[in-house]
Amino acid sequence: MVKTHIPGFPRIGAQRELKFTLESYWHGKSSREQLVETAKTLRMQNWNIQAESGMDLVTVNDFSLYDQVLDHSVLLGAIPERFNDGSCDSFDNYFRMARGRAPSGEATRACEMTKWFDTNYHYMVPELSPNQSFILNPEKLLAEIAEAQQLGHQVKPVILGPVSYLWLAKSAGDEFDRLSLLPALLDSYKGLLKLLARKNIDWVQIDEPALVLELDTRWQEAYRETYQSLSSCGADLKILLTTYFGALEKNFDLTNYLPVDGFHLDAVRGGDEFIRFSECLRSDQVLSVGAIDGRNIWKADITALKERLAPVAERLGDNLWLSSSCSLLHVPVDLEQENGFDSELCSWLAFARQKLAEIALLKQVLLTQPQLADTAERLAQNLRDVTARTQSQRVHRIEVKSRVHTLTPEDGERGLAYAERAVKQQQKLQLPAFPTTTIGSFPQTADIRSTRARYRKGEIDSSAYNAIMQAEIKDCIERQERYGLDMLVHGEPERNDMVEYFGEQLEGYTTSQLGWVQSYGSRCVKPPIIYGDILRKEAMTVGWSRYAQSLSNKPVKGMLTGPVTMLQWAFVRDDQPRSETCLQIALALRDEVVDLEQAGIAAIQIDEPAIREGLPLKRSEWDFYLQWAVYAFRVSASGVNPETQIHTHMCYAEFNDIIQAIADMDADVITIETSRSNMELLEVFTGFDYPNEIGPGVYDIHSPNTPRVEQILSLIDKAATQIPAERLWVNPDCGLKTRGWDEVATSLINMVAAAKILREQSLAA
To answer: pLDDT at residue 684 above 80?
Structure first.
């Protein structure tokens, strides 16, 4: 029988139940038992949702209290040495690895965090050493299998594949060949498969997303060795080798010849490669086709998918499985919760629960001839909805498309080179050596969030709302002046999220009410939805920035989110090239930048934390992407005079391999995340003469730990070996909205104190 399943399901909860329980536990407001019980309830709900939606196999072990890769490190016993100090038990030590601190145990440096392939999700990077040992800790996995089986589900556990795990890992100290650890790692995997085989399980899903990358021969050979070893280990268990986020391309033949029982391919980003793959299968192998998009929220065209899949269904029969392209972790849980969308827009969308229904419908239309009346009507309604979207007049604006098509290379130029601009900017700004600033946001207190909620509900009018927000801005400015910062920010109390805030104000975007998606740990975002051409209706930030600047003689940065991040951190329309949509956003932001300058704002920050994550997974496609991404940023920034200082901010990624593109962005000042890596990210500057100013983050804002002056000085000393001191800024890693005022105050006071010491040392020298 054709089977239906998914690679994974969202775990944070439709109402963010896991987020709130986690944070309550971390703050000592609830017990460990309450957290464990909430997690169990969510797992059971997720399994029941899958079964009730018609999934033949229920996915187990996709649930995590923080991150699935961190879970896998714990499963394998690959715990960095600094967490083996015995200061707390394994449960809280898990959170020390994730956050640097837990309800019990000594504080320490958390594991690094970076993007999961090219998604907006962040994973915890495994740290491995040359003499790494692996000791299985399978209790979590086995317990969740037992839970699901007790509920009567036919389960399919999922584990991260050994080669992808090594690919995603980093060296804990000096670089070494991570593949040297493969034999020892395979011993653990073989032991795990033998354990699973005794649990009344037919299939195990082994995720190997690295197979869609451009691998060299050593990594390709690692795949051959791995699956030859696992398939012959004696475990009576079928392996579903799972890839996603792209096509196999040069790894097609490699993958096809691997001795496993089934394959899952991404038929959304991988195109029609699955058709050719189906022609190469052995008669005893299955092919799971990821036909429903697990990365985006647009309703699938089931009629078109039926035609596309029909030849494969006829060829494979019961050896065809149907699925989403990847885990549904990357989309919101349930569209039925939403009541803010108009009926037309809502008819175009599908969240996780709706995607399960699409998989089930696709199975019905492929297998049932003639169609049952209910199935036929659902299919007809689906076709009406997807056709209406392509024909809707609200999607296309001639004036927007015309403006993009008339752009020239000169629209991305500042007029003067950085060195000349820097002189003019310093004459205007009068900044000291080692200038201090923050990235933009300050703590989003319960009162601030409550005020925004009351305003949205109409409980307070705009006059009262503006007065409260201005009071918050005034407080932020006064605090920064007391701390001694050199370049201030207004604190962004009026903003819910750095992308959603602008999405609410730009035509062509819409926002959801409960469309939450996990970014990392307990951090959730509500990505706006780009459904049509982008147009700025009116100024979005000018009033707030003008007010903030009126409160201080020090420069106050205008704060914007850049065009690439506005694209990457949204659900993007799929009916035109992403590059064209990005340029539409860039032009809207360019108008805002010009208005900020005219309002007297002398420094404007255009954040681009997502520019690296937009890189295609295939390196051969990087140049084209970087060309249009860098140009889009420059278009957004190049409408102002040379005297206006343009800043940008980047985080969550290593930039060594795109450093030239970052330099080509030509921002006057760039701030980047570096503290978790102990400034290792700055090693790229050893062989690259970065021309502009840079602020390497001197403390980790994702951890509740507050930095000491000595720690900050040590990090800046490391940075100064790579960047000339006269071009160094001093700032945190990222925005401060998730932190409390007490730790913010201590951290920033220490940061300013460190900058003053640096100035004194510089003068003495």
So the answer is: no
Q: Is the dihedral of CA 662, 663, 667, 671 positive or negative?
A: positive
**Type of residue found at 271:** G
Which has more confidence, 660 or 52? 52
User: Which one-letter DSSP state was computed for residue 131?
Assistant: T
d(C-alpha 581, C-alpha 678), whole Å: 37
3-state secondary structure 476-512: HHHHHHHHCCCCECCECCCCCCCCHHHHCCEEEEECC
Catalytic residues: 702
Q: Is the pLDDT of residue 347 over 90?
A: yes
d(CA 357, CA 21): 29
Structure tokens at 247: 């096509």
Write out pLDDT tens, residues 110-126.
Answer: 999 988 999 989 999 99
Segment (H or E) for 266: strand 262-266
- Rounded distance, CA 187 to CA 227, Å? 12
| CB-CB contact of 363 with 322 (8 Å) | yes
β partners of residue 211? none
Secondary element (H or E) of residue 668: none
DSSP assignment letter at 52: H
- Between CA 166 and CA 132 the distance in angstroms is 12
Express each pLDDT in 440-455 by its tens digit.
899 998 999 999 989 9
| 157, two tokens | 């556990």
Q: How far apart are CA 542 and CA 548, in angstroms?
A: 10
Amino acid identity at 758: L
Q: Please tell me whether the peptide bond between 609 and the residue prior to it is cis, using omega within 30 degrees of 0.
A: no
Q: What is the DSSP letter of 134?
A: -
The token duo for 506 is: 């730009």
Is residue 648 within a helix (H) or strand (E), and if so which, with residue range? strand 645-650
Question: Which residue has 């951290």 as its token pair?
Answer: 747
Tokens coding 236 = 């009576």
Helix/strand/coil for 45: helix
| Beta carbons of 156 and 204 less than 8 angstroms apart | yes
Quick one: which H or E segment has residue 55?
none
H or E stretch including 305? helix 302-316
